[in-house]
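Today's session is about reading a structure prediction critically. Students often jump straight to the picture, but the first step is always the sequence itself: look for stretches that repeat, for charged clusters, for runs of hydrophobic residues. Only then move on to the predicted structure, which in these notes is written as discrete structure tokens rather than atom positions. Here is the chain we will use throughout the hour.
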Amino acid sequence: MVVTRHPRAGREVRAFGGARLFRGKDVLDIGTGNGRLAFDVAPYARRVLGIDPSEDSVRVARERAAAEGLRNVEFRVGDAAALDVGRERYDIAIFSWSL
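Below is the predicted structure for this chain, in token form.
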């Protein structure tokens, strides 16, 4: 079976175990794309960092975060094979729809 579209908003969060998994945590979203999953996690997380190699996708995610007034979400251009998060620590790393 080949799946060609993303699940509905919130479905992946529920599949991961729901809001309790992310509540108050620092989350790293690898391959964030336009931030779809980062935005689903943001209401529960303390902080979310989304990283993606596409400058265009990161720009779209940043614009949405700004438009929604989200202060706990950040997006950076970067490659999953060479993550550059310095000394930052994360409680959870998620990687979805990035292969």
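Discussion point for the tutorial: Residues 55-68 form the longest helix (14 residues).
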